[in-house]
Amino acid sequence: MTDVAATSTGQAAPPPVGAARRPPGYTLTGAVTWGGLWVFVGGLLLAVASVLLASLTTQLADGWLPRGYTTRWYTQSWTTFGLGRLLVTTVEVGVAVVAVTLAVALPTAYVLARLTFPGRRLLLLLFLVPQVVPVMTYAVPLATLVYRLRLNDTLAGIVLVNLVPAIPFAVLVLLPFVEQVDPRIEQAARVCGATNRRVFVHILGPLLVPGLLAAGVLTLVRVVGQFELTFLVSGPDSQTLVVALYGAAVQAGELASQEINAMATVYMATTLTLLLVALRVVDPTAVAARDGRSSR
Amino acid sequence: MSASGPSGDHLLRWRDRARRRGVTPTVWLVVPGALFMVVFFVYPVCYGVGLSFQGTQGWSSAYRDFFADRLVNNHGSRRSILITLELALAASVVNVVLAVPIAYRMRGRVRAKRALIAVVLVPMTLGTVFVASAMKEFLGPSGWLNRALLGIGAIEQPLPLVGNVTGVLLSLVFTGLPFAFLLMVGYTSGIDPGLDKAAAVCGARPAQRFWLVTFPLLLPGMTITFCLSFVLAFGVFPSATLVGNDAGPTRVLSKVAYTEYSYGHYPTASAAAVVMAVVQLAVLGLVLSARGLLHRGPTTGGKG
C-alpha cells in the first residue's frame, strides 16, 4: 500500500505540469473509443489513397502499388465527360438554389419565429414533413410534374426540384438564428419609422449574417450532393456532377475504372473545397450546440 | 392604407379582429414559402398517392403488383422492404453507437480537436461514387485490406466485403457516421459538465457517472440522431447499386421505385414510393413514441 503510494507520488512529483494536462486516467472504454476513432480515420485515409492511386495508374496492377503513374485519365475524363461544363452547371444550380432558398426562407423563418397566428403549427409541419419523407416519395410525382411543365432537361427544372427540400431545410436552420435576435432591436427600428423592408435590409440582415451563411453553406453542400431529385429530371444537356458521375459508374464496363476514379476525385476536390470554406465560415460544433461557454 | 365608407368600415373591423388573433400584415411574408411548399411538395405527394391508386386493373392493382412481386426486372419487391429496413436500421444503430463515445470524448479539451473533427467530416464530401470506388479498391478481393490480412495469414480466402449487404452497410456507415457525429457533438457539448463533477463528488465511478447521469441526458439526442441517420440511410440507392448487388441481395425500395419510373410505370412507381414513406414514417413514429415512454423530464440540469 505504502509502496504503491510512494511510487505514484514519486512518478507524479517531477512533472506536475504534464500530470495536470493528462486526463486523470486511461480507461478501457477510452482506449476503445480512441482506437475506434483511429481505425476509422486510418481506414478513411487508406480508402481515399487507394482511389487516388487507382486514378493515377497506367494499368491495373496485381501488387500493392501500381506499376506506373500517369495523369492522362484526368485529361481524358475532362474531355469525354465535358467536366468543365458539368462543373459550371453544378455551380450554376448551386448558386441559383441557394439564392432563391435564402430569399424565400428568411421571411418565412422570420414570421414563424416571431409571430403567433392561427395555423402556425400547421405551417411548421409543412416545413418539417419534407425532412422525414423519403426523397423518392415526392421525387417521382415531382419529376412527372416537371415533365408536364416541359422543364425537364433544363437548368430551371433542376433548380426547381432542388428547391423543394432546400427551402424547408433552410427555414429550419434559420429559425433558431432569428429567435436569438432580440425583438426589441426591431421594435426600436420600427419606432424610428423603419418599414418592413428597411428592417429586413438594415437591421435583421446584418444581424442574421451568421445564420444566413450557415443556411447557405449547408444548402449548397446538400444541393451539390443531391442525387435522386436531380437524377430524375436531368437529361444529357443538364447534368450535375453527381448525376454524370453516377451514370458513368453504373455503366462501368464501358469506361476504364481509372477514368471513373479520376472523375470521382474531381468531385471530391470540389466538395472538399466547399467543406473547407464552410468550416472557415461556420464552426459546426458551435452551430449544433449553440453554446461556447462550456467548451471554454 | 385607411379606408372609409360602410364597406371600408366593415373591412376595418375585420382587420381589427384578425389583428387581435395575431394576423398582422407581416404574416403575408410567409406566403411565398408556404405557397411554394404547397404547390411543389404537398401537391406532388397527393398526386403521387392518387397515382398509386390508378393501376391498370382496379384501384389497388399497383399495390397488388408490388406485393405479389410482379414488377419490372423483378427480384422480389416485397423482400426489398425487408432489405431496406435491415440496411437502414443496422446502419443507423452502428452510426449512433459509434458516434456517441467519440462525441462524448470530444466534449472536453482534446488535442487537435478541430483537425480531428475536420477529418471525421471528410466522408461527407466524398460522394457515393467515390465511396463506392473506395470500397471496391480498398475492400475488394484484391484490395489492400484483404491483401494485408492474407499476408499476415489471418484469413485464407479474401473476405467478401463488396457486392453484398456488408459492403452497402459499410458504405452507409462510412458516409453516415460523420453526420451522426456532428449531431452528437452538439448534444454532448450541451450537457453541463458540472453534473458529471457533482456525481463524481458524490462518489460515483466513471461507469456509473456515464450510465446514470450522462446517458439518460443523451438519450433524446441519440433518438433524434438515430431518426435522422435512418432517414439518410433509408432513401439512398446509389451505394446499394454501386457497392452492393441491386439485382438481388441489396435491391432497396428506392431502386424499385426508380426502375418502375424509368419504364414509365407511374402507378407502380408511386405505389413503391408510398410504401417507402409508410415504412419510414412507421419506424420514426415507433422510435419517437418509445422515446416518450423511456424518458420524461428535463434533459439539461440547471443549464442557463
From TrEMBL, chain A:
- Residue span, ABC transmembrane type-1 domain: 87-278
> What's the protein's topology in the membrane?
Multi-pass membrane protein
Q: Which Pfam families match?
A: BPD_transp_1
Transmembrane region positions? 31-56, 93-113, 122-143, 155-178, 199-221, 264-282
Q: Which UniProt keywords apply?
A: Cell membrane, Membrane, Transmembrane, Transmembrane helix, Transport
Could you tell me the superkingdom of the organism this chain comes from? Bacteria
Q: Which residues form a coiled coil?
A: none
Q: Where in the cell is it found?
A: Cell membrane
InterPro entries per record: BP-dep_ABC_trans_perm, MetI-like, MetI-like_sf
| Protein family according to the UniProt entry | Belongs to the binding-protein-dependent transport system permease family.
The protein's matches in PANTHER family, at most eight in alphabetical order, are given as:
INNER MEMBRANE ABC TRANSPORTER PERMEASE PROTEIN YCJP, MALTOSE TRANSPORT SYSTEM PERMEASE-RELATED
Q: What is this protein called?
A: ABC transporter permease subunit
Q: Specify the species.
A: Micromonospora antibiotica
From TrEMBL, chain B:
Residue ranges annotated as transmembrane are 22-43, 81-104, 116-135, 168-189, 210-237, 269-288
Look up and give the membrane topology term: Multi-pass membrane protein
**Any Pfam family hit:** BPD_transp_1
Indicate where this protein resides in the cell: Cell membrane
**Superkingdom of origin organism:** Bacteria
What's the main place this protein lives? membrane
Which UniProt keywords are given for this protein, alphabetically ordered?
Cell membrane, Membrane, Transmembrane, Transmembrane helix, Transport
What positions does the domain ABC transmembrane type-1 occupy?
A: 81-287
Do you know which InterPro entries this protein is assigned to?
A: MetI-like (IPR000515), MetI-like_sf (IPR035906)
Give the record's family classification: Belongs to the binding-protein-dependent transport system permease family. CysTW subfamily.
- This chain belongs to the protein called ABC transporter permease subunit
